[in-house]
Amino acid sequence: MDIGKDKPLSGRISRRKLLGGAATAAVVLVQTATGKAFQAGVSVAELDDPTKIPGVLPGTVGTRSSFEQPVKKPSPTSSRTPLQDLYGTLTPSDLHYERHHGGVPAIDPAKFELVIHGMVERPMVFTLADLKRFPSVSRLAFLECSGNYRGANDGKITPQDICGLTSQSEWTGVALSTLFREVGVSEKATWFLAEGGDAAVMTRSVPMSKGWKDAIIAYAQNGEAVRPEQGYPARLFLPGWEGNTSIKWIRRIEISDQPFMTREETSKYTEQVGPAKIRQFSFTMDARSIITYPSYPARVEKGWIEIRGIAWSGRGKISRVEVSTDAGKSWHLAALQEPVLDKSLTAFRYLWQWNGGPTEIMSRAVDETGYVQPFYKQLLAARGGNMGYHFNPVTAWYLQSDGQVLFRST
Amino acid sequence: MLVNTIKPFLLAAASATFLATVPHTDPGTVSFETRRTDTLHYPERFGFGKPVSAEKIAAIDIDVRPDGKGLPAGKGNAVIGKQIYAVKCSACHGASGTEGPNDRLVLGDTTSAKNRRVKTIGNYWPYATTVFDYVRRAMPFNQPGSLTDEEVYSLTAYLLHANGLISEKTELNASTLPKIVMPAKKYFVPDDREDGPVVK
């Protein structure tokens, strides 16, 4: 590495240190005189007292502290948000969960086109620039995959493993209703097909009523362009509905008077309830909550513990979250962090003094329609013994007397 | 009447809030959903975007509905489909469609208790048209969109035959495919969950 002309501002960072010596304590960003940031090893002594070394100059793109390494947990088909490592309700965009059926496509925004046709007066095609010219809307909303429950008999399972296919962003785009008007949708239309431009050419049928109500063609996420994993350059976003319906990389919308019965709404994303019933088009995500602290793999000490978590409902606002610290015998109201928003993650907390004895803590969400998050056994009974999609049970954490926190089914 | 011809609607509270709550009882002839997404002086049209040609639509309009709308010309049968399957599909779905490693496509022996919980085309898919639509758009997984319409008809025929739903000789085409009644169709019900306290 030649740093001849491109000298670091601090003369105390030697070339040896830049190359990373044995005494490297951490990798930090170092800014050079010409404004280039690069990583360098800094000795323990320098880290001990940051007041004795000038810091990094302003840069073009911020970075996460090298001491913080929250990561998604990937499998061949999805990647889960590390809920236990996050605070508040906004998911950093690079930690938003992923679920796709044919990988993340590379789409050139200059070539992007959204075609709307079918039962319309004027079949039309919109470029990304066209979409951005329309009046825009922004809203915070959670997105959750409906196949989002896992348990583990040994209890060694994190919130990320249990329900890490839940994330929240601010989505900005054009209301789909605006585009419906632009193309002149027929009054007789009842369903539309949304199709993605990925290798799965993902399709779902969506009732027109949802399209008129609050659907967005989103081109931005948390203030910047939608991430590739979330549908760059534009995606459908359906607040409160199972994630699969919010078709990413949207390329086509066909207006129709019947559903298309695509593979994802027949073979998948349907659930057996009872011996001879398969429930279809179960769009809405039922209310759910999870305690993210304390949770596995945390270890806690007796004394004051602020129990923290998130709650959400696809039916509207969370009206309350109840917390139990005695395995469900008694319940207490948790404090909800304002603002409590429609179809959005809501942070809750409950201050508790643990006496160190083994116990189970759990939370249950109640939404504004009066839906109460069920226990696992209750849900299983209501579905006639079937598990599957839309499984949103109360999750318990067992606190061992040594402070180890373990998952427990309810 | 087309929705886009509706006069711009004045929101009572001229706020920029998306989804401002407007009482459902407002007079008028359009659905409340239409009105409440409107903003002040919303024009009938913005004039952004371009008309799209029929050819351009045809090039990407690959969906097939249960009533057969969208099915292309062409035909196929299970005898031919079996050969294509062996070459292009068996590596991932198994020689007989039951072995994997990827999704099981054939139910196999229905008398075995184990198979009753397995979900396949034979016992779970409500429409035969979905097989055509899905295979044409997404399979083979490593070369999606590479099959000809004739190949897809034959592969669909093979998968339906292997699941015991049609004979080996049955010709599938745009008129015969939508007429196949799938055994699982009778089990499908629309979502019956509602707002409120009932857990379903």
From TrEMBL, chain A:
Cofactor(s) essential for the protein: Mo-molybdopterin
BP GO annotations: sulfur compound metabolic process
Keyword Oxidoreductase found: yes
Enzyme class: oxidoreductase
E.C. no: 1.8.2.1
Residues in coiled coil: none
Domain Oxidoreductase molybdopterin-binding: 101-261
Residue ranges of domain Moybdenum cofactor oxidoreductase dimerisation in the record: 283-385
GO molecular function: heme binding; molybdenum ion binding; molybdopterin cofactor binding; sulfite dehydrogenase activity; sulfite oxidase activity
One Pfam family of this chain: Oxidored_molyb
InterPro entries per UniProt: Ig_E-set (IPR014756), MoCF_OxRdtse_dimer (IPR005066), Mopterin_OxRdtase_euk (IPR008335), OxRdtase_Mopterin-bd_dom (IPR000572), OxRdtase_Mopterin-bd_sf (IPR036374), Sulfite_DH_SoxC (IPR030835)
Entry keyword set: Metal-binding, Molybdenum, Oxidoreductase
Region (Disordered): 60-85
Domain of life (superkingdom): Bacteria
Keyword Oxidoreductase: yes
Protein name per the record: Sulfite dehydrogenase
Source organism of this protein record: Dyadobacter luteus
Encoding gene (name): soxC
TrEMBL record, chain B:
Pfam families: Cytochrom_C
Domain Cytochrome c positions: 76-163
Signal peptide (UniProt feature, chain positions): 1-20
Alphabetical list of InterPro entries matching this protein: Cyt_c-like_dom (IPR009056), Cyt_c-like_dom_sf (IPR036909), Cytochrome_c-type_DH (IPR051459)
UniProt keyword Aminoacyl-tRNA synthetase, yes or no: no
Keyword Flavoprotein belongs to the record: no
GO molecular function terms noted in the UniProt entry: electron transfer activity; heme binding; metal ion binding
Domain of life: Bacteria
Keywords per UniProt: Heme, Iron, Metal-binding, Signal
Protein name: Cytochrome c
Species per Swiss-Prot/TrEMBL record: Dyadobacter luteus
